[in-house]
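Students often ask why inverse folding is considered easier than folding. One informal answer: many sequences map to the same fold, so there is more than one right answer. In these notes we will look at a single instance of the problem. The structure comes first.
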């Protein structure tokens, strides 16, 4: 019966005393509101409590655990006597049994059947996945919810009991952790070259799930796009990898075995995992282009799965996931006016009733095979003349027709069947509901609403967890958790747990007048400030499991000698982890407004330098994180984006968001601070993409270089630099059209010293370290976005190939050195779908760390170079990988044309009209390379032609001292594949150019003919008027045999008239492509079809 005269707002008092314990364990006590009630309330509460106790005593006294095991007390027996008797029985149980075995009255056949049914149900839940034909289908329940066996199930039950007595029923492991050689970290080494072995941080917007089930103490939480099963007793992780987008929702079955994770984004999916093995056993793929789900929920028996899709028009679907993962058994479309529905709850007593809610609307569903109906009861502030607030979560009440919804202003909305009120109380559930009343529970917003056993549980923005009975009387209140606003509360499942009072325990007293012990399951809480805590109710002990960053992580640095990784975030928190022991060594919280943007250790490992978003720089002791200088350096006016040290720790330099480079120099500690400020210099007019220290070739002196988005590489003269006077040694433009993204020193695998750069056109380029001449251009990794950072993996004491680690916008990868353009020499995996903000490599090269920026997580990747080498061998040797990059491969039309062009180039080089005998060889002169490239459809600029010629010409110079004047077919194929655009000509780029340079028109940006001719001659590479006339008349089709390059000369007298008569006055991108270049800009565009 609903109690409408409860006193909830009055008992919420935040002034109770706090009790603390040792270390990370805090002892807390619940609030006892008895002191705040008046005598009349106490009398009423006493009478009601006495009535409830009388009712419980005179009832058959059955207690059912979550796994279906039924415990019974003798009629008239007091709870204390029952507890004592159960303790004696528990001591006498057989040690082989895996679940509790309450004493049975052998003379009572009915009780025997109930016990057998409970054993069968528990065994089925632990050993078999839920399916239509699982043994628990032989279990039935009477009107009071007690389990008993049908005739068909008795034989199976006795067989299961026999297996248990023989010790053959498997128990739940702590975490799946197969043995691996060569590492002591958890996880499994896959066939991939990189594998996540540990994750730091968590997604605080996804609820933390409790996996504790009597055999293990573990939790599951989302960490970017992976799930983490964490054994917080043994400090072990098991990583669940299977998503391409950040995990947005999750749920766990009642028996803690079946885990569901969902994501939102492109190629989104829903995975069902077996937490005993860590294996995904079902995947639901979403064909929706927008993809993904906002919420998932399992039925109590874990047979059915409910999902809420993402997108403007959401779909509520029910899946029989154990049978079919392709199509739901029923679904319904939801109007956008309902808001984004992001929470699902099944009715435990009838799974065909389910509710969902957004922050403005609660929906009640009823479903069956191939059909689903739902109701959307309205509720506004005017309905009850009081504010409602934003909805957070909703639940069904036990043994009632009512449902509850929590709101952001501390209200509980009570929903009931939309029927006339009668004196007869009905518990029958209907989907057609209406708002019955609004109850003010507290002032703080309610963020969590859930149930456990017979209690209703509330978690709020004040960090409190409150327990109510079904009549909404406050039973107990955990107010001293102090973890921040609660976002999730998840309870353990223990087959031996009993909710009756037990002796020799330290459970707190509840808030009723009799004040019996409040016996509740252990639970885990998650908060909005990224703290996870475990509450052991027997003793009211609170343990911090995780205390992570609750803001974006951009600062990441590994120690040069020790297994330490420093992680800094915009929350002002800087933590140093021992990544071998997985322990926090030291942490520090900086003052408000000081947010770490980047950090780096000096090569000797003595200092940790941190750059902040406000432009300041701190020098810290690497062990204690204490300041080594009295005041931070603060010479930049914008965020510090990069910090680098020289190899001898004499200098460190910073780059900031104002495009300036600052230099700092070491000094004797006798002079004060370990470093002093030298000066700043602005050598770039666009963002600095990379900063790099190196070593002079003829000495051990350091050298400093910077690379900007302005395509300029600048080297600074450190020898001539003085206080407040930075000297630039050289400034070289290294790219023509591409924008460089990063640079690194090329490993010493050749005699020549190179600097390797990556640009936004998916190219890797090698520049001579002294002359800055481009010596080689190679096709880089093409995994969605260009390389943003490249670093050489240390290989101390190892022989064989060198490796480079790189990151793109959302991936991390590995590539084999030396670079040759072979696509099989590189691999990449999704590291952080929301973007990779930083990357660091361990001092021994075994691990790569990536920071996810806004997802507030860091992944630790184990390097498996053997897998990458195997991938390379499987891709083929010599030219086989390059044939695969050509359209049609070795047997395709392009390769056949290339052979013809190759031999025709030999004829051209010997003279087209020559009458002498011609020599045929396997090589062509370097001078013919541009012509063959253009014949294949690749039109390089003059600078690109020079780079290609130099690449071949100087390829053997360091080894032999001779120039290469010719190249064979294999060398040409490599040259063509590496230099041509990675994804062909882009019509979007041509359209962008006309939109940028031209004036708006119905057909897009248009450029005046005179302005276009002037820009073609004055912008970019120089083009004479004669050359322009020749090219245009040839493109317009007025020159035979391809213009003057072969057998005819250009007639300049008529070229001007031809251009004037045939070139339109206003030219747009489509016209330029079709009428001048001779191809359609977009093959399916209306303009192209005219």
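Output (designed amino acids):
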């Amino acid at each position: 019966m609903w109690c409408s005269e409860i006193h909830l707002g009055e008992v919420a008092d935040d002034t109770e005393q706090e009790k603390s314990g040792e270390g990370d364990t805090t002892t807390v006590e619940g609030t006892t509101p008895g002191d705040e009630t008046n005598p009349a309330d106490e009398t009423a509460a006493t009478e009601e409590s006495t009535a409830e106790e009388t009712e419980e005593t005179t009832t058959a006294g059955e207690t059912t655990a979550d796994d279906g095991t039924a415990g019974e007390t003798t009629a008239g027996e007091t709870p204390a006597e029952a507890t004592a008797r159960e303790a004696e029985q528990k001591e006498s149980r057989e040690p082989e049994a895996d679940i509790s075995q309450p004493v049975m009255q052998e003379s009572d056949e009915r009780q025997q059947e109930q016990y057998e049914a409970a054993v069968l149900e528990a065994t089925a839940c632990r050993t078999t996945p839920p399916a239509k034909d699982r043994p628990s289908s032989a279990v039935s329940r009477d009107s009071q919810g007690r389990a008993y066996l049908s005739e068909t199930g008795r034989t199976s039950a006795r067989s299961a009991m026999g297996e248990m007595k023989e010790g053959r029923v498997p128990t739940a492991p702590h975490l799946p952790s197969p043995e691996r050689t060569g590492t002591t970290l958890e996880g499994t080494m896959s066939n991939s070259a990189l594998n996540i072995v540990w994750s730091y941080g968590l997604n605080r917007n996804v609820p933390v799930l409790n996996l504790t089930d009597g055999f293990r103490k573990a939790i599951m939480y989302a960490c970017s796009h992976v799930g983490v099963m964490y054994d917080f007793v043994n400090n072990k992780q098991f990583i669940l990898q299977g998503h391409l987008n950040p995990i947005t929702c999750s749920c766990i079955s009642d028996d803690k075995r079946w885990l569901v994770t969902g994501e939102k984004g492109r190629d989104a999916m829903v995975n069902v995992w077996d937490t005993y093995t860590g294996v995904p056993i079902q995947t639901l793929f979403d064909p929706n282009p927008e993809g993904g789900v906002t919420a998932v929920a399992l039925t109590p028996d874990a047979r059915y799965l409910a999902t809420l899709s993402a997108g403007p028009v959401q779909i509520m679907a029910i899946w029989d996931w154990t049978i079919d993962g392709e199509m739901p058994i029923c679904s319904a479309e939801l109007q956008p006016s309902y808001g984004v529905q992001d929470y699902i709850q099944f009715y435990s007593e009838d799974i065909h009733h389910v509710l969902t809610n957004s922050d403005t609307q609660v929906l009640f569903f009823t479903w069956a095979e191939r059909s689903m109906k739902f109701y959307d009861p309205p509720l506004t502030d005017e309905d009850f003349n009081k504010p409602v607030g934003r909805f957070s979560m909703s639940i069904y009440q036990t043994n009632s027709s009512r449902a509850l919804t929590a709101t952001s202003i501390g209200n509980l909305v009570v929903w009931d069947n939309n029927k006339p009120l009668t004196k007869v109380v009905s518990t029958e559930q209907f989907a057609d509901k209406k708002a019955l009343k609004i109850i003010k529970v507290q002032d703080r917003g309610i963020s969590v609403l859930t149930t456990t056993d017979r209690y209703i549980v509330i978690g709020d923005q004040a960090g409190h967890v409150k327990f109510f009975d079904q009549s909404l009387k406050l039973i107990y209140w955990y107010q001293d958790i102090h973890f921040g606003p609660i976002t999730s509360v998840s309870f353990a499942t223990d087959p031996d747990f009993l909710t009756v009072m037990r002796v020799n325990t330290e459970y707190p007293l509840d808030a009723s007048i009799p004040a019996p012990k409040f016996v509740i399951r252990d639970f885990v809480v998650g908060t909005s400030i990224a703290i996870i805590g475990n509450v052991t109710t027997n003793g009211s002990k609170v343990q911090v499991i995780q205390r992570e960053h609750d803001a974006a992580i951009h600062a990441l640095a590994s120690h040069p000698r020790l297994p330490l990784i420093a992680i800094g975030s915009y929350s002002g928190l800087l933590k140093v982890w021992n990544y071998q022991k997985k322990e926090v060594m030291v942490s520090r919280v900086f003052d408000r407004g000081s947010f770490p943007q980047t950090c780096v250790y000096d090569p000797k490992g003595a200092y940790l330098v941190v750059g902040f978003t406000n432009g300041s720089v701190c020098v810290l002791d690497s062990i204690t994180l204490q300041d080594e200088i009295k005041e931070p350096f603060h010479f930049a006016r914008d965020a510090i984006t990069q910090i680098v040290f020289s190899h001898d720790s004499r200098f460190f330099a910073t780059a900031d968001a104002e495009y300036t480079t600052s230099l700092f120099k070491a000094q004797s500690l006798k002079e004060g601070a370990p470093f002093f400020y030298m000066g700043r210099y602005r050598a770039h007019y666009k963002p600095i993409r990379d900063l790099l220290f190196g070593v002079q070739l003829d000495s051990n002196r350091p050298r400093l270089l910077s690379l900007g988005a302005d395509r300029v590489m600048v080297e600074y003269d450190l020898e001539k630099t003085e206080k407040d006077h930075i000297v630039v040694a050289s400034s070289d433009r290294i790219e023509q059209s591409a924008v460089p993204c990063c640079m690194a020193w090329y490993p010493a695998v050749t005699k020549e010293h190179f600097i390797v750069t990556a640009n936004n056109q998916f190219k890797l380029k090698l520049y001579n370290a002294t002359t800055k001449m481009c010596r080689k251009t190679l096709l880089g990794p093409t995994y969605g976005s260009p390389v943003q950072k490249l670093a050489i993996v240390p290989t101390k004491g190892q022989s064989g190939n060198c490796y480079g680690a790189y990151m793109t916008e959302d991936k991390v990868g590995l590539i084999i050195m030396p670079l040759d353009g072979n696509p099989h020499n590189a691999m990449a995996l999704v590291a952080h779908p929301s973007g990779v903000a930083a990357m660091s490599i361990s001092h021994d090269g075994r691990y790569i760390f990536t920071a996810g920026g806004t997802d507030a997580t860091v992944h630790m990747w184990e390097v498996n170079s053997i897998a990458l080498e195997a991938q390379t061998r499987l891709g083929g040797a010599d030219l086989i990988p390059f044939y695969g990059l050509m359209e049609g491969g070795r047997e395709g039309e392009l390769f056949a044309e290339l052979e013809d062009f190759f031999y025709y180039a030999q004829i051209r080089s010997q003279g087209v009209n020559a009458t002498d005998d011609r020599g045929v060889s396997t090589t062509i002169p370097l001078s013919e390379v541009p012509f063959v490239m253009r014949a294949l459809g690749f039109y390089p600029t003059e600078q690109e032609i020079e780079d290609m010629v130099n690449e071949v010409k100087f390829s053997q110079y360091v080894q032999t001292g001779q120039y290469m004047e010719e190249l064979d077919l294999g060398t040409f194929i490599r040259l063509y594949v590496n230099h041509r655009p990675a994804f062909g000509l882009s019509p979007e780029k041509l359209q962008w150019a006309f939109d940028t340079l031209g004036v708006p028109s119905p057909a897009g940006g248009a450029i005046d003919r005179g302005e276009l001719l002037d820009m073609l001659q004055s912008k970019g590479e120089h083009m004479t008027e004669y050359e322009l006339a020749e090219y245009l008349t040839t493109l317009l089709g007025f020159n035979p045999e391809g213009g003057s390059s072969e057998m005819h000369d250009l007639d300049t007298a008529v070229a001007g008239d031809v251009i004037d008569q045939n070139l339109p006055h206003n030219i747009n991108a489509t016209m330029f492509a079709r009428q001048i270049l001779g191809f359609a800009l977009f093959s399916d565009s209306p303009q192209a079809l005219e």
